[in-house]
UniProtKB/TrEMBL annotation:
This is Dihydrofolate reductase. Gene3D superfamilies: Dihydrofolate Reductase, subunit A. Pfam families: RibD_C. Residues 4-180 form the Bacterial bifunctional deaminase-reductase C-terminal domain. It comes from Brachybacterium paraconglomeratum. InterPro entries: DHFR-like_dom_sf, RibDG_C, Riboflavin_Biosynth_HTPR. One of its GO terms (biological process) is riboflavin biosynthetic process. One of its GO terms (molecular function) is 5-amino-6-(5-phosphoribosylamino)uracil reductase activity.
Length: 189
């Protein structure tokens, strides 16, 4: 069965973006980028990967989920940032039609449960924190790109919510000279 994987960059103090939705402090150069290019090339926006000559075929994910604010990061330059994947944006706001982009105000949990029953690759939860909170019970894996800095405030990895503690097991950690570490956790079943 397909898994829902929350793969996201996060600061040491637990934020996926700053208070004004900025993410420009995240390191985008250094030895950790080799790890992204090797294992997670499909998580690079289509146009950027093409410009860099990065092959995006055969990746782990074939679907990406985003909230409206995460999707808006690339607008208007990239209305369909991950055209090589099935993109689903959860929002009540209307968005311009774009290639391989589904915009919905459906219940994210119901959509994910339906996706998990279909054939295909894993489902990448790209962000944001409110969507992650809505989907917390459906997340099978966390893949955190821990960045070596503090935001101090911003968009948390998970927005505040009411749910029981859930345990995940450590799968692996890889740390790079840049100070960035990739840590994977799997939901304890």
């Amino acid at each position: 069965m397909r898994e829902l994987v929350y793969y996201v960059a996060v600061s040491l103090d637990g934020y996926i973006a700053g208070p004004d939705h900025q993410f420009d402090a995240f390191l985008i150069e250094g030895d950790h980028m080799e790890g992204i290019n090797e294992e997670f090339a499909v998580t690079i926006p289509t146009d950027i990967a093409a410009h860099l000559g990065i092959d995006q075929s055969g990746g782990r994910f074939d679907t990406v989920l985003m909230g409206a604010n995460t999707h808006a990061v690339g607008l208007p330059d990239m209305p369909s940032p991950y055209r090589h994947l099935q993109q689903i944006v959860f929002t009540h706001r209307p968005l311009e039609p774009a290639e391989n982009l589904r915009v919905t105000d459906e219940d994210p949990v119901a959509v994910v449960r339906e996706l998990k029953q279909q054939d295909g690759g894993d489902i990448w939860l790209c962000g944001g924190g409110r969507l992650a909170t809505q989907l917390h019970g459906e997340i099978d894996r966390l893949l955190l790109k821990r960045q070596p800095f503090l935001f101090g405030d911003g968009i948390p990895l998970f927005a505040p919510g009411e749910y029981a503690p859930e345990q995940f097991e450590h799968v692996r950690t890889r740390t790079y000279e840049t100070g960035v570490s990739f840590t994977e956790f799997a939901r304890r079943r």
